[in-house]
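We modelled the chain as a single entity of 321 amino acids. Its sequence is:
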Amino acid sequence: MRVLVTGVSGFVGGHLAEHLIDSGDLVVGLSASGRWPEGLSGLALARQVRLEAFDFAEGAESDLADLIGRKRPEAIYHLAAQANPQASLSDPRGTWALNLGGALNLLEAVKASGLKPRVVLVGSGVCYGNPAPEDLPVSESCPLRPNNPYSASKAAADLLGIQHFLSYGTDVVMVRPFNHAGPRQMSTYVLSGLARQVAEVEAGLKPRVEVGNLEVVRDFTDVRDVVRGYRLLAERGAPGEVYNLGSGRGTRIADALEALRSLARAAVEIHVDPARVRPVDQPLLVADASKLRAATGWEPRFSISQTLADMLDYWRDAVKR
């Protein structure tokens, strides 16, 4: 299959490209810079993926339509986004421009190209906000109550995808992944940040692990399971439909940290830093992904224990470098 991956140089994009290549697909990737970051430039995927530059917030729709017409992808995975909820609070306009404006740019370019690729529009499970107890685990019918510009812009992009399907017959499916983690994730995300700190304590680079609120419960899915779900949706998802993607299992941050401590090669002291403790607006968020399972047969293959172990190994190597 000929595929186009936007945001290919990001954490999820790199893992998706690797999975697509392993599945026999021919991959063209788009990124705003047109360059691989240092962490991916030495990997095999950098030699196997044709990388081109396109800025979804500022690029011209006509240029994107021309690119799609030249590459003739059978599937497009749209990952390009401002993906940090906290960062979206300080730059709401930039977040909306990229997350909603970028999705509009892509869908209009697909329409203008005259082609009919399957488009997998990647949203987010945080668009449900703080669900009521009776809505847990969260299904696709749960009301959307986004509480930051990131989640609101992702919810709006989902509605745009539905509108494009209904108005123009665009072959688009929307997927809402819940929290995901794995090797190569930036340490600004909670599990990766904890794994990095444990590796630094092991290496004697810091005396202890600094933490915030550990009582939050999240549905963490390994990124390698997430990208496998994306490809299954490209093959088997119904156009115009929305699918949650998550393990269906809640993990308390405190339990994840204890698992990392049990894997550590040195004693790890924990210190609660008041500056890291933010008011918790989503104490519990777990996905109901039964619709995805019914449509594709997807099941997670990686346990949270394996994900944490692989993340710790990644950061051990990174700390050495």
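As a brief sanity check on the tokenised model: The domain at 2-180+220-245 is CATH 3.40.50.720 (Rossmann fold). The chain has two domains: 2-180+220-245, 186-218+249-285+302-320.
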